[in-house]
Amino acid sequence: MSYERCTPSWYQHLDRVVRSRHYTWLAEGLGGRPLDEAATTLLTDLRHVCEQNGVDWNTVLEDSARQFAVEQQKLSESEAVAMN
Q: Same domain, yes or no, for 62 and 33?
């Protein structure tokens, strides 16, 4: 399982990169793998973290879908303002 490779530094890296929203490295894949494989690996690791901590994965997906919609709307609005 991919989570077995995780070390405290991995979690620190994840926090620094993902929470700071510097996602450019994802488009490059993980270890040179295509984006879809990199995203699958990342999501698999997150599922393991949720499972280990008693967090319902489906709730996380639903919450993230709502948050994504809100963030996309704000982005659209700010882009529209910038164009005016």
A: no
Query: Are 65 and 28 contained in the same domain?
Result: no
Amino acid found at 6: C
**Gap between the Cα atoms of 42 and 30, Å rounded:** 9
Q: Please tell me whether the overall predicted TM-score, pTM, comes out greater than 0.70 for this model.
A: no
SS3 at position 56 = coil
Helix 35-52 × helix 57-83 angle, to 10° = 130
- How far is residue 64's CA from residue 72's CA, in Å, rounded to a whole number? 12
pLDDT at 52: 92
CA distances from 44 to 11, 13, 77 (A): 14, 17, 33
